[in-house]
Amino acid sequence: MAESANQGYEVTASKYRPKTFDELAGQEFVVSTLKNSLQSGHIAHAYLFSGPRGCGKTSAARILARSLNCEKGPAQGPCGVCDNCRAISRGAGMDVLEIDGASNNSVNDVRQIKDEVLFPPQAGRYKIYIIDEVHMLSGSAFNALLKTIEEPPPYIVFIFATTELHKVPATIKSRCQQFNFRLIPIETIQGILKKVCGEMGITAEDDALFWIARESTGSMRDAFTLFDQVVSFSAGSIRSDLIREKLGITGLEKLNALADACAANDAPGAFALTGEILDSGVAIEQFVIDLAGYYRSLLLLKNGITRESLLGYRPALFSAKALETFDSIRLEQALELLLDCYRDIRYSVSPRFELETAVSKLSWLSRWISPTELGEAVENARSVFGNAGVSAARQVQQKPAASAPAVREMPAPAPTANVANTAPAPRQSTGNGRSLSDEFKRMLAAKGNGTSDDASGDEEDVPLWDSAVNKTHEKTENPSQVENVLSVIPGTVIE
Q1: Are the C-beta atoms of 470 and 433 separated by less than 8 Å?
Q2: I need a labelling partner for 430 at 20 to 30 A (CA). Which of 128, 266, 395, 490 fits?
């Protein structure tokens, strides 16, 4: 009894395989072009279908073959009731031959095809060869097939399907009509799954079906395969919480809680939530993937993107606190941290250590300063110090001349003096021919030798940098200058 029941079961991907062009989801351009070609009678001798896995290439090839050999055609679609259509649907059509290019990729296999094309079809109008994964053919096999594709008998039609178009030689592409299949939109996959649930008598939450459609990444076959797995443990009711529990997926509620803890700089709380998620059975790699996808969604929301198919959830379900705390720069840094963490996990001593380190960095993300912000702060601080030095130099120049000091004997100049005198002029001048950087160097040299410029008694020998700093720190005379310097440095609190 169990054996007969197993023989009667058919997987959803095969049961709901498209049988007409109208059932081919997400390929409007391909469908319209092929329909017009069939209606006008412009039948090419070779077609090349390329695109991602599970998007309908082989199904479209079978539909085209049935349309060409339908007793009521060639028409825009097969009738599905004539003997030829039913035979091709069962895989018993003698005039439609499906060949796996991965296992029949030698020159001898192509030579057999060249011998067979000499015999006309037996039941239909055309003898059709469907070669799947055609990119697996060897270079010699492709070369042997060139002449047959270019000048085949009038009753021969070749339909090639491949997921790796770049591996097909240009000489083959130039002899075929090319059709590029696209990934199926998430909304389309969700609608098909909802229709299937209705026909099978299964109740399903919209969020659960949306998750299945999103995880399929545009492949209808992957969506049906995952759907069969979820149905097997759902007992007729597909729920999001049940999917998270059985498949070990991090829920949005826990991701929101973790993002809130990171936004509040609560490292202990973030570590506790991380341990709770891992203890629930979620794999570390899956957790990093879910967390990276979450911060990606926050980055998209921060830039005004609210499309649910891109975010993965409704915009209102994401943490408002995290969106308010983090700007785009810090969200980009968070995403970069998590992507680096995923790469490092593979070669790490402990993948959990890598994850906890990344969570620790996320917990102080709101205080992180980007290199751009730091560079702007340095430039602002430099401008404040530079204005203070210029002001001090002008005050020194405006003081009345003092009595001439006593003449002292100066030692012979050092040999390096000429080199210093021939050095190019500094780029930033203080107004009297000396730069702040040179004066700062003189001050350091004087302190290193244990001497002071003040010993000379020359008021003009006071380093301009020292004057600028002293003027800036004279809070009793001008307290606003210190506040101006501190205000341009991020994270500084002025009391």
Answers
A1: no
A2: 490
495, 486 Cβ separation under 8 angstroms:
no
170 and 299, same domain (yes or no): no
Strand order in the sheet with 177-180: 96-100, 127-132, 156-162, 46-50, 177-180
Clarify whether residues 102 and 133 are in a common domain: yes
Tell which residue, 245, 255, 58, has the closest CA to residue 160: 58
> What radius of gyration do the chain's Cα atoms show?
38
Name residues whose C-beta falls within 8 Å of residue 235's C-beta, 6 or more positions apart in sequence.
none
Determine contact, residues 76/67, Cβ cutoff 8 Å: yes
Least confident of 272-281, 367-376, 474-483: 474-483
- Clarify whether residues 55 and 171 are in a common domain: yes
Question: The domain containing residue 199 runs over which residues?
Answer: 186-247
What CATH number is associated with residue 225?
Answer: 1.10.8.60
Q: Which two tokens stand for residue 71?
A: 């007793």
How many whole angstroms separate alpha carbon 278 and alpha carbon 334?
Answer: 20
Among 259-263, 283-287, 371-375, 394-398, the range scoring the smallest mean pLDDT is 394-398
Nearest Cα to Cα of residue 178 among 21, 51, 76: 51
Number of domains, the chain: 4
How confident is the model at residue 389, as a pLDDT?
54
Same domain flag for 361 and 386: no
CA distance 393 to 232: 84
Q: Could you give the CA distance from residue 414 to residue 418 in angstroms, rounded to a whole number? A: 8
pLDDT tops 80 at residue 243: yes
Which residues lie below 8 Å from residue 216, measured CB to CB, with a gap of 6+? 54, 189, 222, 223, 226
Alpha helices by DSSP H, 201-237: 206-215, 220-234
Residue count (the chain): 495
Query: Quick check: 58 and 84 in contact, CB under 8 A?
Result: no
**pTM confidence score:** 0.66
402-432 core/surface letters (b: 16 or more CB in 10 A; e: else): eeeeeeeeeeeeeeeeeeeeeeeeeeeebee
CA separation (Å) from 222 to 40, 65, 161, 229? Answer: 35, 25, 18, 11
pLDDT confidence band for 50 (50 / 70 / 90)? very high
